[in-house]
């Protein structure tokens, strides 16, 4: 499944990845902090989005974070 990390204040995509362990990624994201090359962030909330691509319904986990 696609997993996207988004800065909640600006809507900027920080990372897009594909993972088969979505529960593990979500659990790790809810830890103390997440470090990206652009700084340190804290989990705020997540959303499961569905979209259509080439006539197929796909889903992605969007994890919203705020800079700390």
From TrEMBL:
This protein is called Thymidylate synthase
Source organism, top-level taxon: Bacteria
Write down the species: Lysinibacillus contaminans
């Amino acid at each position: 499944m696609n997993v996207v990390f988004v800065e909640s204040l600006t809507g900027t995509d920080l990372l897009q990845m594909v993972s088969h362990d979505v529960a593990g990624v979500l659990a790790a994201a809810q830890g103390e902090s997440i470090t990206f090359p652009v700084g340190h962030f804290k989990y705020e909330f997540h959303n499961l989005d569905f979209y259509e691509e080439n006539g197929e319904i796909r889903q992605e986990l969007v994890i919203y974070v705020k800079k700390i």
